[in-house]
Specification:
Keywords: Signal
CATH architecture of the domain at 93-233 and 245-274: 3-Layer(aba) Sandwich
CATH topology of the domain at 93-233 and 245-274: Glutaredoxin
Structural class: alpha/beta
Number of helices: 9
Distance between the termini: 120 Å
Helix content: 40-55%
Length: about 280
């Protein structure tokens, strides 16, 4: 009789001890420590074994990095003052200088205005002046790392003849300059030509649109748009040099030309220029 009662008492005692609140707290703490250990283990694996992350996140990051590495940085040019941006100084360069720039500058965009001013043709000259001055201010203020140059084949320019050979290489028709300027935008020997006869504003808008496109492709940049309606006129050099008789293009003597031909000249690159639709002309 005593044995069954004793066994029952032992069973009840063990049951009470097992279900004691303190015991339940210990169990919770033990399970919690196991969970935190698993979390720490997971974080350790995530930190030191990144290949176990989801493949989607890796692909996105890698793709962004690759896209970023595709861009290049232009060679930074000296920044101009506000006064210099509004007053275009006449570039003292020759066709040989421009050719050297086009051959050597492979990280910068080179913009060249080809034009010809005429004696007593003030309306025609004003179109040239508008394109020169307004484009220079636009590039100087909003596209400061673009190289600006000019090819002036006017008769007062004693270096006009030096641009003839380069014009042939670029397939620029100098005769078209009788009706209006031509803008050449080039980067790494490829680019686009823009020209107009009467509407300089549309010409400038089309040129800047293409410049912004090239900047985005090469540098990943989106510079602000220019206020091209704010017209800035470059100087008309016939005002300072107005001969009585009509001028002819200066050409050097045959002896001087022969000396230059006798010099060893580097092989020119193959320039590739295309022309957009002339809807803006």
């Amino acid at each position: 009789m005593l044995k069954p009662l004793l066994c029952l008492a032992v069973i009840l005692t063990l049951s009470i001890c097992y279900n004691h609140p303190y015991r339940q707290i210990q169990q919770r703490l033990y399970r919690g420590s196991q969970g935190s250990h698993r979390r720490d283990s997971d974080s350790f694996q995530n930190r030191y074994q990144p290949h176990q992350k989801s493949s989607n996140s890796i692909d996105v990051k890698t793709k962004k990095k690759q896209e970023k590495n595709n861009f290049i940085k232009p060679y930074p040019l000296p920044r101009k003052s506000e006064d210099e941006c509004f007053n275009l100084s006449y570039p003292e360069e020759t066709g040989e200088d421009l050719k050297e720039i086009l051959e050597s500058e492979n990280k910068n965009i080179v913009v060249t205005v080809w034009y010809e001013n005429f004696q007593n043709e003030w309306a025609q000259n004003m179109v040239n002046q508008d394109v020169q001055g307004t484009l220079w201010r636009c590039l100087c203020e909003n596209h400061p790392d673009i190289i600006y140059s000019e090819a002036d084949i006017s008769h007062y320019n004693l270096n006009a003849y030096t641009y003839i050979d380069l014009a042939k290489e670029l397939e620029i028709e100098l005769g078209e300059l009788n009706d209006g300027p031509t803008i050449v935008v080039m980067s790494n020997h490829t680019g686009m030509t823009f020209r107009t006869e009467e509407n300089p504003l549309k010409l400038l808008k089309a040129t800047e649109k293409y410049i912004r496109q090239i900047e985005k492709e090469l540098y990943g940049l989106e510079n602000p748009y220019c206020d091209l309606k704010h017209q800035i006129l470059a100087d008309n050099h016939y005002e300072y040099y107005d001969p009585i008789e009509m001028l002819q293009m200066y050409r050097p003597h045959k002896e001087e030309t022969a000396k230059k031909v006798g010099k060893k000249q580097s092989k020119s690159p193959n320039y590739q220029l295309s022309e957009p639709e002339k809807a803006f002309s």
